[in-house]
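@channel sequence for tomorrow's demo:
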Amino acid sequence: MILIWCAYSPSNMSARRRALPLLLMLALRFRVRHLIVVKNHRDAYAPRLPLGQTSVISGSNTLGEFSAWAEGLNFVRDAIADDDIVLCANDTLLRHGRLGLGDYLDLLAHNNSDL
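C-alpha cells (generated this afternoon):
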C-alpha cells in the first residue's frame, strides 16, 4: 500500500504522539511500504513511516488536500504496481485527535479489500 499524507498543520508534540501509533498500525496491518508526505504549508509537520520508505514533497495547496493527493499521485505514479492500494489521508486526523481507541480497533478489523 502507498499512503499519501496531506500535511498542513504545524508540528507540535500532540501531532507527533498521535502520528506514530497511527502510522505504525497502518504500516504493519496494511503493509504500507511508501509514505508520501505532501507539505501544503512550509512549516507543516511531516511524519515519518517507522517501517518502509518516506518521501516528503512540497505541495501547492491550490485545492487543499485534493491538490496534495493529486501531487502525491504524480510523484509516485511510476512506482504504483497494478495490485497496489493507494490511500489518501489528511493531517486533520492528528490535529483534532479524532481517532480514539474504538477507531483504531475498527481500522484494524478491516482488510485491504475493504479499503
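heads up for whoever presents: The chain has a mean pLDDT of 82.
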